Amino acid sequence: MLDTLAYTRIEGARSDHDITVYALSTCGFCKRALSYLKEKGFAHRYIHVDTIPLETKNEVKRILKERFKDDVAFPFAVIDGDKHLVGFIEADWAKTLGV
């Protein structure tokens, strides 16, 4: 189901990770996370989950919680399909992405 969402793709010089960010359009931490990825040159995709239908948003949150056994807060980044980051703490993102 997650593969059918209308993500926005951002090109970047670095494509060593498959990065998907679930964000809110009004969230300052989400904006900082997306800016961080652009500044570091990472290709990624994102979706603002507050702009999709409520049923779809709830399903996205359910799937992410089930898959990663963690509460869903935003931004929620999936790295290479098996790692995830919740919220934006630059040091955690840098470590996970190898920056």
Task: Summarize the helices and strands and which ones pair or pack.
Elements (H helix, E strand, L loop, with lengths): L7 E3 L8 E5 L4 H12 L4 E5 L5 H15 L7 E4 L3 E4 L3 H8 L2
Parallel strand pairs: 2-3
Antiparallel strand pairs: 1-3, 2-4, 4-5
Molecular structure report:
The protein has 99 residues and is α+β, with helices and mostly antiparallel strands. The chain has one domain: Glutaredoxin (3-Layer(aba) Sandwich), CATH 3.40.30.10. 35% of the residues lie in helices and 21% in strands. The protein is built from three helices and five strands; from the N terminus they run ββαβαββα. It has helices at 28-39, 54-68, 90-97, and strands spanning 8-10, 19-23, 44-48, 76-79, 83-86. Strands 1-3-2-4-5 form a five-stranded mixed β-sheet, covered by helices on one side. The protein is globular. The relative contact order is 0.23. The mean pLDDT is 96.
- Write down how many β-strands occur, each being a DSSP E stretch of 2 or more residues: 5
Q: What is the name of the CATH architecture?
A: 3-Layer(aba) Sandwich
Helix run count = 3
CATH superfamily: Glutaredoxin
Distance between the termini: 31 Å
Unreliable spans? none
* Name of the CATH first level: Alpha Beta
Spatial order of the strands in the main sheet? 1-3-2-4-5
Order of helices and strands: EEHEHEEH
Largest sheet: 5 strands, mixed
